[in-house]
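Hi, here's the filled form for the chain we discussed.

Project: internal
Contact: R.S.
Residues: 170
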Amino acid sequence: MRDYLPPPVSARIGRRETRRRAVLALYLGYPAFIAALWCGSYFNRGQQHLAATPFLLVVIAAMAAMLWGGYILLARTAINLPNISDRVLDERQRRVRDEAYRVSFRLMSGILFGAALYMLLALSFGWPTPHSGDAVHVLFWAVFITTTTLPTAVIAWTTDEPPGHDEEME
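And the returned structure, exactly as it came back:
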């Protein structure tokens, strides 16, 4: 049986401005999505369905932004090195990927340490904490989205454009 080799990694990285917008769309789209869902469900409790319509539009816009950001970041390009097999990466690409993992680990460690510190203080001082199943789901998916896309987002944010590069990603 022949060994399957995936297609080569595209060198097209797109404009830095587009990549940064994709990162922001992905990471700001999720809180906007959750906030709009929460506000919409709050207004629906009072049977004021017309008041929930703007929140539904925000939910749709936030989901579209997240999907666009994910599409740009997770394409089979040099930006998505963390999700590409080692056997198709050269030594420089592996170094870039490994550095992105190190930066992502430091960022997630800081975020989780801050969350743990908040929970410790919240329990001591009676501050609000997530106690419902819905709140736990929101936190789970926030951590899941962040941990699975953060290395790619680090590469997308920090990679410079090659000189004379005006080509937009498709």
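Let me know if anything looks off before we file it.
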